[in-house]
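Bumping with the actual sequence this time:
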Amino acid sequence: MFPLQLLTVFASAALLVSASPAFKDPCCDTSAAKLDLPSNQNALVTPTTAPLFVTLGVGVQNYTCNASTLTYTSIGAVAALFDISCLDKTPVFAYIQTVAFEFWSALPAGLAATSIGSKMGAPGLLGFHYFVPSPTGTGISPIWDFTSTGKFAGNSSAFVIGSKFGDIAAPTDSAKNVDWLELKNLQGSLASKIFRIDTVNGQPPTSCAAGSADISIKYTAKYFLY
């Protein structure tokens, strides 16, 4: 059952959001927001500066079946990004991705991830995460796009395209939960680094049959933007 405390915290945080032309949360002090990385790895490195934003991603990881290996290959992701920058000092911050996934996995097919906000009483939709043709000219690259909704709507510079820099298996249940990532800026002004951590679900089945249709697997995660 969804904790009343979490609804109250979300509602309070939503009142703190206001517009700002700067690419940082204008109201929330994110200096204490903790990027909690495993100590037994060095592929992901915590920045020395405070994050500009902490977001909750709610969406799907997309896969296609490789006819040669009969395994699923990633073809990107699509997620709604909710601003949780104001929640880092609250008890719910540590497990918000798990609660969000419970809501998301229970929603009937056809309902968009954006509907999670109203279901949870969450802070405003800050933007979207999806994939675009890579600026390198090869393949696709992930983008965090704040240009069309939220406090930076209409600002054409409010995006960042990332390139994977570090990758570790999820510290718990890596067969089910997608990897934790560090990405660096490839293009855009929104952030210089992006981290995906605290992932819930998103991994595909271990095998597929030749000719299988593409699949979408629901997931949630925290995205820290620096």
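The tokens above came from a reply further down the thread. The longest helix spans residues 4-14.
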